[in-house]
Amino acid sequence: MADLKSNFVGIESPNPFWLASAPPTDKEYNVRRAFDAGWGGVVWKTLGIDPAIVNVNGPRYGAIWSADRRLMGLNNIELITDRPLKTNLDEIARVKRDYPAHAMVVSLMVPCEEDAWREILPQVEDTGADGLELNFGCPHGMSERGMGSAVGQVPEYVEMVTAWCKEYSKLPVIVKLTPNITDIKQPARAAMKGGADAVSLINTINSITSVNLDEFSPEPMIDGRGAHGGYCGPAVKPIAMNMVAEIARTPELAGLPISGIGGVSTWRDAAEFMTLGAGNVQVCTAAMTYGFHIVQEMISGLSLWMDQKGMTDTSEIVGRAVPNLSDWKNLNLNYITKARINQDSCIGCGRCFASCEDTSHQAIAMDVDETGKRVFTVKDDECVACNLCINVCPVDQCITMERLDVGVIDERTGLPVEAEFADWTTHPNNPGAV
Amino acid sequence: MLCSMTELPPIYQDGISAGRLDEETLSDNFCDVHPPLDLHEAQVAADRCYFCYDAPCIQACPTSIDIPLFIRQIATGTPEAAAMTIFDSNILGGMCARVCPTETLCEEACVRELAEQKPVEIGALQRFATDKLMERPEHPYRRAASTGKSVAVVGAGPAGLAAAHRLAKHGHAVTLYESRPKSGGLNEYGIAAYKTVDGFAQEEFDWLLGIGGITVENGKALGSNVSLDGLQSEFDAVFLSIGLGGVNALGFEGESVLPAVDFIEDLRQADDLGKIAVGRRVVVIGGGMTAVDAAVQSKLLGAEDVTIVYRREQGKMAASEHEQNHAAASGVRIITNAAPLGIKGGGVEFAYTVSGDDGLHVSSETFVLPADQVLTAIGQTLTEDQVTALKLVRGKIAIDDLGRTSMAGVWAGGDCATGGDDLTVTAVAQGRDAAEDIHTSLMEGA
User: ipTM, 2 decimals?
Assistant: First the structure.
């Protein structure tokens, strides 16, 4: 089995799976249990200045579910730690002393004043922690007080605070970015300019998960009112991966290490984030849903996959898919596929037919064979290879896309498949074609 | 160490006797065979539905209930809306949810049966939805304005009830004649007790009458105190759903021989199951649902040995595989390819049979099954002298696709008519469809 040991900006850990700054890393009790369960590192839940903040005393989470009530998305209105600074610092020091091989990163959020940062940084360093994460991401509550995403949304502030931290601390600085912006590259560039060792992303997304239709209030409802929260969990993974990849594929940011966050729930999610440029991953919702033990599946899964790919070090995964992330205009228009339905695995539900017939290209025919079985087949002269049928089919691999060989006539266009690559940049319909 | 015992419990008493089991055991034995789903179970079950296009389950339902829609309505927290989807197609959706052989209808057609051999639990979900709406005090449908037309419905079984409700809903005045003291037909008298517990058949009947415009007259039987001529002159239309009043008899008789339908009826109407007599050794002759219902209930009443004997091979049994398994799991033995010859000694003598292309052959090899009680379930027949004026086909009232008989102004449906499968759900479909045709006919030129 491949060794998963990880080195992220000089911070070593037994594996690339860290628990993100959140309730699971709020105190010594949890973090010890997390390390014992196998987590490679933690980012301790965000510290602030005393007096400690207070949390609401009603519900802190809202959620959306898929079938069978699997948690797909979670939002929260919890703030940073609500315990005194010293309590947290003492606990961090004790845990780090007992778990020297595990990564201990401390998340920080103090007012946007140089003195506040200058005061807290040495205290954190004294705990023996391995690194700092600057929380410029929390989109609720703290942002109303000029912290969290209120900082992350202003690149100048990101750069300024990062620079202070680099000035007043020797520890590696990871800047945690908010997704609640237009272009993730702007704050990433600012962090880089401020001297950040890495960025981590995404923090949570502004969200309202549901509305109570009896009380007419957003959930989670606190005495008849709700505030927007920060959204995370499996549902945000596609948004997070795009932002990670945007940074990874931008030449001027390409060397900036990334800690990937956002809906990582399985080893496969972690591998995907890493192929898009993340050096490691941080996990929260999956642990909050299933407990710490899931990390064992992540460890065994990633290790097995690396073995199958002949990889021996997690650094070999990082960025492997980035060269294949392209602009739309550079996709090959001569790559022509058609949907194929495997009649042996088809269960006859007709969802492909309904979706294609009602909402797409009328490219699936429905017939009944001599035994009375419903038979669905693809009409090649209508199929544009959109892939929707595969996405609505309940049976994995029942429908697949088959590439037409060069020279074969595409029945939809009546034209033979061309051998050479041809994209939009050279297409005759493109007024700007070269 | 074994101790000597002087007296055996009543379960071992020879002959036919009541009280073989104590009250508590009987109560356990006759509880709901498929307990209702709770909210969580219903949501998990509903989540499994794929919302198929032109769904195979709908095609397989004789009443064409929009099953994917009602399941989606359950999944989205509106079981009352789900119930209306069901009742719009099948007003006896509550009973059908309990008694339909779903394993040979909607659930057999479910694509998840093909995919995983585990269909969506359509019957149980239908019960969940219908129970929820029927808990409400008010009837969910409103009658249309009165049409001034009147219709006689003869027989208050599933077909008659479905027809009466649909006709009343359209604004016609319905008089429902029923020969027995209670309405409901097979639902009330002929189905195993554990399939419809807590007096559900009467509860459903009362709920159904909530539509208004239905006058019920019990103790009125066609051919005795009601005549077809009289009904035709008194009403604008007549719907016959008189069921099958007679039973096929074996070629021999005996004190111990009883039609299974009578046994089931007595059991269903009993206030105290401890007073229903059953043999220590019971032989049930037949291969359909009635045979299974009689055999299983004999066992549940405390019969020691219960055997179903069917003259053809197992694959020909009208009882579904699910029903056969239920019988086997209840401790009933099933013997196939054996035909009864007569009472012999303390039992019934059978001869083994062989099915050939030219029919069933009785062999010379015989055996005797000890039997204190013999229940016969070899089919029911139309009481033909009730309907002498109508054309019959194979012993049933001939009807067309619209439910029309050979006589103008007279429609028929349910077990007495051609075209059904002797199932509650097909009877409901026939009653409903005939009612629609009656409505169309009555309103022509109106």
Answer: 0.83
